Amino acid sequence: xSDPDVIRVALACAEAFEKAQVGYFLGGSLASSxxxxxxxxxxxxxxxxxxxxxxxxxxxxxxxxxxxxAESLREAIVRRGSWNIFHLPSVTKVDLFLLGTGAFDVSExxxxxxxxxxxxxxxxxxxxxxxxxxxxxLWFREGGESSSTQWRDIIQILRxxxxxxxxxxxxxxxxxxxxxxxxxxxxxxxx
Length: 191
Prior knowledge:
Shape: globular
Number of helices: 9
Strand order of the largest sheet: 1-2-5-4-3
């Protein structure tokens, strides 16, 4: 699927989230592609602050273009886990990660920003590049430090956003999460 198609699906999701009054942000590889080096992606990741009363309004707002297993999504809401929906016309998987309750999860969500992606003013909320770096460092560590894709995303965000990053924020969270060594290595490689 081409990048404009992925962005179009992400914007359709964002519009539905906003219509159903669900807090959200775009994360994962699409977010890091917008913040660093563009690359192909097979799915779209959103972190959502979805509550049970918002489920039916969200399903209605998504409409017939999306396949939503409402009962499985209901279970994900209750356990604060994850589930996926599918955009049928493009056969795109959209992963929905329910907002966690940890301190970094809350900070990451509070720092999301709205970005405009189309000439017509279409936009969505995306995580900050600082939070992308920290989250990807976490995923890299949790994955046994073997994902070259995660590592490349980290390096590219650090390289391309270098002067505009709040490094004190990144250092604070990497220290708190025990990621200082990985950050030092990433900063060295991105220089």
